[in-house]
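Field reference: sequence -> structure
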Amino acid sequence: MSVHEPAPTTDFAQGLANLREHGFTVVPDVLAGETLARTRDALYRAAAADRCRGREVEQFALDKGDQSLTQRVWNVLSRDPVFEDLVEHPSALAFVREVLGWPALLGNLSANICSPGCEGGHLHADQTFLGEPWPAAGPQGLNVAWAIDDFTADNGATRVVPGSHLRNCSVPADEMEADTVAMQAPAGSMVVFESRLWHKTGNNITADQTRAGIFAWYTKTYVRTQENWFLALKPEIHQFGSDDMLTLLGYKSAGFGLVNGRSPV
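Structure field:
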């Protein structure tokens, strides 16, 4: 198992090498300036609206402690147009195409906002929908996490066990408290990690720093999406979506989801 963290890199080939060896890679400076500011404002606005209307989700199974300190925002894709840009960002889709192949599906786009005092979460892998041993073909899913605020060791950055993807199994009961490292990344970074990597939300031990991240979950096409886009999606996203977006949402199909033998669109 790897004992070192990969250095952040904007080199795509090195990022892929980091994924193979460590299970994750940090790509800095993908969002910047006004784009990052608009995205951050849109996310915090959606989170505030959920709190105001009492629409916060009950305790999420992977979170510990007080739910009010670890807010989940679901169906982020329908909340503001800026999030559509994240889903099909060229830097994100480059990793999706290389690791999972194409076509692929967007299983979910959700946010995790970790406020001071949040107790983090339980160590897990995202490929537990498969029986073990997992396929030798490699990861069946890929997370692209967008650091909307700085991710630091103290403010609740996602924590991982580097190299754990090479175990090719879910977290054994006796390793739930395995040593982890924080995926530290400045705001605007893209953190890519594969579905077999053991990870969890970190503890926020700061007095005044909130850590917000948006997590795009992509999978191979045979995997059922976590979000039911056909029920949850705002109509205009389907109506005006690009070919890539419609493919990711399952509206353009190849092999699965056909209607009378053809893709629905």
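Note: The first strand starts at residue 24 and ends at 27.
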